[in-house]
């Protein structure tokens, strides 16, 4: 199996106090962590790419731990999450799909077994491309107040032979959410949906 070669890791945290309405007493924290890694499959078609998922697992756990630490909260305070990948132009979309399991299971593990599927997106793009990573509630995907996205990207990444793997987390609902739907207080938490 190829070794994961990391060129850089970037972590970002934002604190949102308001979106034009009343100022929140506690700001919403939204964070992302992106690792820019060499794509071992760039430049050629390889049939069996699944072994690389195993190699990505330790990176996923390390990234989830790093992001949780950057947000400065306990795992129980994380209410939203998501994941994504950007594949450089020498690769293919399927290479980005290799992040689904390592990224999702890493966050579930670090956060203590969240129930909801970790939403995901991926794309192929040149250096500087941006990606909107979807966010949903960690225990119930239908909690509308937590539907969100976090835009990520770097001016020099990914290069053609790289891919960027991304995790995002939030500490709560959108500031001033008032679009209705299932409330976080009403979660049953049995099926990951409600």
UniProtKB/TrEMBL annotation:
Record-linked Pfam families: AA_synth
UniProt keyword terms in alphabetical order: Plasmid
InterPro entries named in the record: AA_synth_put (IPR009569), BB2672 (IPR035936)
Designated name of the protein: Amino acid synthesis
Organism name: Sulfitobacter pontiacus
């Amino acid at each position: 199996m190829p070794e994961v070669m990391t060129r850089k890791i970037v972590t970002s945290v934002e604190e949102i106090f308001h979106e034009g309405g009343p100022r929140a007493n506690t700001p919403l924290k939204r964070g992302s962590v992106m690792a820019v890694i060499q794509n071992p499959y760039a430049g050629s078609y390889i049939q069996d790419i699944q072994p690389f998922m195993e190699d990505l697992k330790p990176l996923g756990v390390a990234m989830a731990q790093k992001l949780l630490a950057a947000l400065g909260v306990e795992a129980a305070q994380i209410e939203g999450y998501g994941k994504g990948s950007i594949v450089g132009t020498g690769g293919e979309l399927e290479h980005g799909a290799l992040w689904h399991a390592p990224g999702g299971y890493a966050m579930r593990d670090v956060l203590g077994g969240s129930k909801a599927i970790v939403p995901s997106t991926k794309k192929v793009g040149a250096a500087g491309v941006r990606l909107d990573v979807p966010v949903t509630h960690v225990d119930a995907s239908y909690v509308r107040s937590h539907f969100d996205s976090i835009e990520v990207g770097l001016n020099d990444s990914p290069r053609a032979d790289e891919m960027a793997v991304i995790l995002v987390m939030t500490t709560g609902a959108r500031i001033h959410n008032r679009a209705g739907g299932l409330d976080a207080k009403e979660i049953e938490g049995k099926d990951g949906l409600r």
